[in-house]
Amino acid sequence: MTHKIINAISSRNVPCWGSRKKYIAVHYLGVAGQAHDLASDGCGAHFYIYWDGTIYQRCSLDAVPWAVGTAGYYTQKPPEARNSNTISIEMCCKCDGNAASAEDKKWYFTKETQDACAWLVAGLRHDLGIPSVNVLCHYDIVNKTCRAPYVHNNGYKTSWTWATFKQRAEEYFSAGQKLELKPGMKVKLTQDIAIRDEV
After folding, report:
1. Which one, of 136, 33, 37, 149, lies nearest residue 88 by Cα?
2. What is the residue range of 161's domain?
3. How confident is the model at residue 199 (pLDDT cuts 50, 70, 90)?
4. In this structure, what CATH number is given to the domain that contains residue 46?
């Protein structure tokens, strides 16, 4: 299956640009809704995936949004994934319980969101030479209940388990999934880039 990447790249609110990416971090949006922008303080991700599986690329791959750091609050875990060497993907989610609490067990992803994320992860791995072991969830990097449906790992509603997600991503990878992103999607072209197209 092929998914669509909407190029919503802008340098607005990107804190800085960094080094070669070695990790991929999977997040959940943390609110029951859909969005694809960086916060004014630079917090956010490179990609956002909506409920219908549409993928938005918010910043070029060399951008460094604040996504996997400790924020002065969380505890860093191994491995040595950092904002500067990690591609972050936010999965938009839903919640049937208390959406103000990451500890609620009723957070879930749509099947479309998960499949698109697995497809994207496989393509990024091929394009950037990232091994499967370096595909992590935010919770693997710091002690934050991020991508709650996979931290709780209870398969609520349409959510897969983390193992199922990794297996699906590996299937796409084994099938040779590549993204072949355009130059402006890989490296920032100008300080004010604001491209709107699709690949």
Report:
1. 136
2. 5-198
3. very low
4. 3.40.80.10
The rounded distance, in Å, linking the Cα atoms of 132 and 59 is 23
The encoded tokens of residue 112 equal 């479309």
- Measured distance CA(51)–CA(70) in Å, rounded: 28
Task: Count Cβ atoms below 10 Å from residue 69 Cβ, excluding itself.
Answer: 17
CA 182/CA 60 separation, integer angstroms: 10
Tokens 């505890």 sit on residue: 75
How many structural domains is the chain composed of?
A: 1
Q: Kindly report, residue by residue over 94-114, the tens digit of the pLDDT.
A: 999 999 999 999 999 999 999
- Spatial neighbors of 137 by CB under 8 A, at least 6 apart, are 25, 26, 27, 146, 147, 150, 151, 162
In angstroms, the CA 106 to CA 154 distance is 9
Give residue for tokens 């091929």. 126
